[in-house]
Amino acid sequence: MVFHFLGVLTVIGKKNSRDLLQRIEEKLVEITEGTTKILVPKKSLDEKVPPKEPAFFNPAAKLTRDFSILAYSAFWEDFDKPKIFLDGLAGLGARSLRVANEIPDVEKVVANDINSDGLNIAQDSMKLNEISNFDTSENEICHFFGSYSKKGKRGSIVDIDPFGSPTKYFDCAIRATMHGGMLSVTATDLQVLHGLSKRSCQRKYHGVPIKTEYSNEIAIRLILGCLEFVAGRLEIQIIPQFVQHDMHYYRAYLKILNKPGQKEQLGYIIHCKSCGSRKTAMKQEEVCEICNSKLEVAGPLWVGQLFEKEFAMKMNEMIPKLVVDKRCEKILEKCVLESEMPPTYYTLDEIASKMQKSPLKMKNMIKKLQDAGFVASPTSLNPNGFRTDCSIDEIIKLLS
Ligand SMILES: [Zn+2]
Predict the structure, then answer these.
(1) Cα 216 from Cα 218, distance rounded (Å)
(2) Residues with CB under 5 A from ligand 1 (ion)
(3) 393 alpha carbon to ligand 1 midpoint, in Å?
(4) Tens digits of per-residue pLDDT, 122-144?
(5) ∠ CA(119), CA(122), CA(127), 5° rounding?
(6) Percent of the chain with pLDDT over 70
(7) Is the pLDDT of residue 23 over 70?
């Protein structure tokens, strides 16, 4: 990343001189992400936890913004309706600016936030990139989405990227997304989704998590489960296209159709702590059919597919046309492989510890399973994880 100083910041509040003095002491720097110039507070690059003042910017979230550019490019490539991007919680506009600047033929990007300082910075960044398809809006997020909820006014891609849980915005974000459009959602309330307090997860997501080796997949399925719950109420169908997880966040990208979904997609993950068996089911179960132990249950949550194979392939095809992190390609290759695999995964380490042997290499594990007639693939959600339709007792037999 190349930084250079812009000198004294160009954004000066209109409020009062004390405010103004304080702002002048702070400095903005120009960074380049993808091919887009973005003004960000220098402190957000220097400090471990980026400050919320004058506007929040997380440099570590570049990978997620790279994936957004790939996903939106893939989604819009053969899209015949207006390419309109609505960003509900834009901050200083990093994602929105990149959408306006890096994806061809985007008609309009609207970056909304209640923080006018962030929006002023976004407007200065807009000038640096010499783009004209970029607007800002200073409004409460649901009022903003509400003004785009009428048929004919909706966005073709709508994004919510909050601090913490996104669930309180699901209704208004879904309503602001056109038929055949895309909704993308971030969740950063990892402690809630990982089961620190089951009660608070149930309150926010309608489902409960359990602690397992694949807790990140359960978290993503809880987010999608809650979206499905809200969408069902609105007679909307959601079709997940791509999901992604990194240290501090989850992201999900879904297609929105203005018709009720036909298939029941809400169910449970049933996990046995004793033998390690795991599966999805439409009803809760109490006793493990392999070892007779008491089972743990996560959900209700999304039990359908997380990835649309063709969409993941298309995202991969976009890579040479854009400037994105090298990791994207490897991750997307795994998404393609796992797209039609069963839910939940195992890790090489947990199998090794069960067998009291050193872990197999990923490709050897997958080959062993495939040679025995099972389906198997790595997973993008864990470098140590693999998906298979082989049950835990059969995996152990196979490796003994
Ligand atoms: Zn069991």
Answers:
(1) 5
(2) 272, 274-275, 277, 288, 290-291, 293
(3) 9
(4) 999 999 999 999 999 999 999 99
(5) 135
(6) 94
(7) no
